[in-house]
Design goal:
Number of helices: 15
Shape: elongated
Distance between the termini: 74 Å
Strand content: 25-35%
Number of domains: 4
Radius of gyration: 31 Å
Structural class: alpha+beta
């Protein structure tokens, strides 16, 4: 980074236009003000003076060239295809700015000895009157202000002598009322009352924690993607930025999955048939140990598919559609998607939410009336598994009956999992299937 002093020696004069002044004021408020500690105009000017010194990492990040230009500098000769642009991402750790160049599949393009020098134009801090005027006018809509909004407050002393902060417009209304009571106007008091400014954030601290937790526990993004998302999310964090506490989730994603999802979204939107390469896990030798590896299935590994919807259920993404019959495919097991030129018309009666609710753990099948008899202590488990689908009736002895119209295959898994607490009353065919599975398991364990 070149300092402002170095830039001056090269003949560049410090300057400050309105937009750059607004941008600098905004950055000062974002970094140093809070609802509990708003800044006066004088305090803001003091911080602006410091920006006349060497540029910081956020300045360099703001001044970074566009993605295509940066690609040309870092990787000469690498051409980004029109529909599959190579992504350029930046994230910061402390005062270090990291630049990551990757393909849409998530492959990082590495290069040895890469360096990029950026020089920030020297900055001239605006005067007190300019800052005061700009803050009173507010920020124009063309300044990218999300997720912040400018707030102005004033100090008010309560009857018990405490000082509290109230919106400036409320203070003005109260001051005007006091002036009317006195029969005059105290313009000196109103003009000399110090305005204090801060940025109100779109997210509370608790909401920011929820978002950061969702990113950390989501299994289908890599650790590197998690760090990148958290860096972006940190800009929404109110007040002082901090690293969220770890959640120790197991990560098993790859960048390729997001490319698959993008292709499937396009196929669903355009109602185009796809050819799907679907995988299964097989044991292979890796680093002198047997490891499950996802490879194309031996049987039905290539499927011509009518994609109806992508949905989240049972902790996974599923592609719902039709091969010969209705089928649900785990998206994380889709190895490749090819969009064909053929189109299709989805069934007019297909309702994604209803289909999900009637297909427990995404087992497809024809809806059938199923009745279960369970202990009433299982109500929480029933709700987790079946949602709002069942209808309940209390039964003697601390039991409850649950009735629902649903695909039986998923109910079978539930009944086997909680065999000691659940009995399937009907249909009889499902009772026989469960009984046979339990008998076969008993024979296995007794042998």
């Amino acid at each position: 980074m070149k300092s402002s002093e170095a830039a001056r020696k090269e003949g560049k004069k410090p300057y400050s236009n309105t937009f750059r002044s607004l941008e600098a004021i905004w950055e000062v408020l974002r970094r140093h003000a809070s609802p509990k500690h708003p800044l006066t105009v004088r305090e803001i000017c003091d911080y602006l003076k410091r920006l006349e010194e060497d540029p910081s990492s956020y300045t360099i990040e703001r001044l970074f060239p566009e993605e295509r230009e940066l690609m040309g500098r870092l990787f000469p000769g690498v051409v980004a295809e029109e529909e599959r642009l190579t992504a350029v991402n930046a994230y910061s750790e402390g005062e270090t700015l990291h630049i990551v160049v990757e393909t849409p599949e998530g492959q990082v393009l590495a290069g040895e000895g890469l360096a990029l020098e950026a020089a920030a134009p020297p900055f001239k801090a605006p005067s007190y009157s300019t800052v005061d005027k700009l803050l009173k006018l507010g920020f124009p809509v063309d300044v990218k202000t999300f997720p912040y909004r400018l707030r102005c407050v004033a100090e008010e002393r309560t009857k018990d002598g405490r000082v509290r902060l109230i919106p400036y417009e409320d203070w003005e209304e109260r001051q005007a009322a006091r002036e009317r009571e006195k029969g005059g106007r105290d313009l000196e008091e109103r003009n000399n009352r110090a305005r204090r400014y801060y940025l109100a954030n779109a997210l509370t601290d608790g909401e920011w924690r929820i978002f950061s937790d969702l990113v950390q526990v989501y299994p289908f993004i890599t650790e590197r993607q998690t760090r990148k998302f958290l860096t972006a999310l940190n800009h929404l964090h109110p007040g002082k930025q901090s690293r969220p506490p770890a959640r120790y989730a197991f990560k098993r994603g790859s960048g390729a999955m997001f490319l698959v999802i993008a292709q499937l979204d396009q196929a669903i939107r355009e109602k185009r048939r796809v050819r799907v390469s679907y995988g299964e896990y097989r044991l292979e030798q890796k680093d002198q140990r047997w490891t499950p590896v996802l490879v194309q299935r031996k049987h039905n590994g290539l499927l011509d598919f009518e994609p109806y919807a992508l949905m989240w259920s049972n902790g996974n993404y599923y592609l719902v559609g039709k091969n010969r019959d209705m089928m649900n495919l785990r998206v994380d097991r889709i190895l490749n998607v090819e969009l064909t030129g053929e189109t299709f018309a989805p069934p007019p009666d297909f309702e994604p939410e209803e289909y999900r609710d009637r297909s427990p753990v995404m087992y497809p099948g024809k809806r059938t009336l199923v009745r279960l008899l369970c202990r009433d202590s299982m109500l929480g488990v029933l709700t987790d598994f079946f949602g709002s689908v069942p209808q309940y009736s209390p039964r003697p002895g601390g039991m409850v009956e649950a009735s629902m119209s649903i695909a039986p295959a998923g109910v079978k898994l539930f009944a086997l999992q909680y065999a000691g607490s659940v009995e399937v009353l009907e249909p009889e065919s499902l009772r026989r299937e469960i009984a046979k599975t339990l008998e076969d398991a008993l024979k296995t364990y007794r042998s």
